[in-house]
Amino acid sequence: MNTIATQHRAHTQLPSLVEWLSNLPALGTVRPLFDNHLIKVEVTRDDTGVVVRAELPGVDPDKDVSVTVRDGVLHIRAERSESTESQGRSEFSYGSFLRALALPAGAREDDITAAYDKGILTVTVPVSAETPPAEKTIAISSAE
Question: So what's the pLDDT on residue 88?
Fold first, then answer.
């Protein structure tokens, strides 16, 4: 006699994927940092140096953006906050951005310049035309 095994779906304590997803906020209400803009950063290098361009729309470069360099690393920081009020309802959004970029050998840290124009931050890092030092082998001593 053939018996047909029936499969029973075991109930678990975990909700189904559909139930879990239905509890998430609608995509239209989720805002990435910097108000629906993903921060795009472009780094290019030529014979004269490195140019970093970052899209930072809607920020005040004097108050909201800082560019620093320390120990051969360029740091770009930006913060943005915005609030609107209409019909007795207020809404606010905020976000921050941080990018750290290692500078190449020969970067002249004292000559770095930064400019902000039409939402684009451009940081120019001049690099010396000097040949970087050759690789040096370090002798390893043993404890014997």
Answer: 81
